[in-house]
Amino acid sequence: MGQAQLRDSPPSNEAALGNTDSLELISKDLEGCTRCKLCNARKNIVFGEGSPAARLMFIGEGPGEQEDLQGRPFVGKAGQLLDKMIEAIGLSRSQVYIANVVKCRPPGNRNPEGDEIQACSPFLFRQVQLIKPEMIVALGKFAAQTLLQTDERITSLRGKLHSYQGTKLMPTFHPAYLLRNPESKREAWLDLKTVARELGIEIPRR
Ligand code: URA
User: Which DSSP symbol is given to 31?
Assistant: First the structure.
């Protein structure tokens, strides 16, 4: 096959669909997904939810037990803390968009593995491309490392603004980590205040 033919061939990757893409199409592409081994034990695919016009997007790691049961992101204990973090900067859950790096629960809440992140992250990238948030908050190491394509630790990534394909990105601690390490909430709050400032949101008095 010649070079020209190679260049002209239709895109084989779903992510290459460009401006014909939609959240509905992404969700449809995930129906019955068997692209990685997480399909074996999942009960529900957790696509993500929120406003498709959100200025701010929160990206977590992957569904836990409650999320797997309900098919919704961040509805367990960590989700309750995430709701408080969102409200602390004067927003509500319905105003933002919440998604995860992997859409199916890693068994026993283990960390997602490299092959699983590789199989699933294109769907997240498509969600970000469609929602076009002004800013992304990467919750924890897996979201931050996947979006920024780095091995750096969350402790060195957090607290500074980064860029994901031209979109401002703030890495911060995952709410589940904050539940185990409440002394780190102070740093997470500093990160959220930076996010609010960048979005021109006045922080409500507490
Ligand atoms: N932790 C995550 O990273 N995502 C969820 O949806 C729930 C818990």
Answer: T
